[in-house]
Q: What sequence folds into this?
């Protein structure tokens, strides 16, 4: 595994850990918990799918798994935005995580395009 790939594996795991900590700190009301569970599912699956991509048995499977990573990262962005828009968590507190989500999306788009030969 190349260094950049290993580093992204670590980065996506750290991202998942940040999502877990955010979820743990959410208010216990129904709306926060429902949105939080959606965020928890999508945010932690980015790294899991990235790990699976590197165990892919074919180029097509790799491209598919990277696509799954991208889909989950984009969904995570949606839940973070919704939490900020609804003032469940103050936007300034979410800004670093939203920024990291955007960076991961950009990286995954690049990986996907390169793998497809675009």
A:
């Amino acid at each position: 595994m190349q260094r950049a790939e290993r580093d992204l594996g670590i980065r996506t795991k750290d991202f998942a850990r940040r999502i877990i900590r955010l979820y743990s700190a959410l208010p216990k009301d129904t709306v926060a918990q429902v949105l939080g569970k959606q965020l928890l599912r999508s945010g932690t699956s980015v790294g899991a799918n990235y790990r699976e991509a590197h165990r892919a048995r074919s180029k097509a499977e790799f491209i598919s798994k990277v696509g799954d990573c991208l889909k989950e990262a984009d969904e995570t962005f949606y839940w973070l935005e919704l939490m900020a828009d609804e003032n469940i968590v103050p936007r300034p507190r979410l800004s670093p995580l939203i920024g990291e989500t955007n960076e991961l999306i950009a990286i995954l788009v690049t990986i996907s395009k390169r793998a497809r030969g675009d």
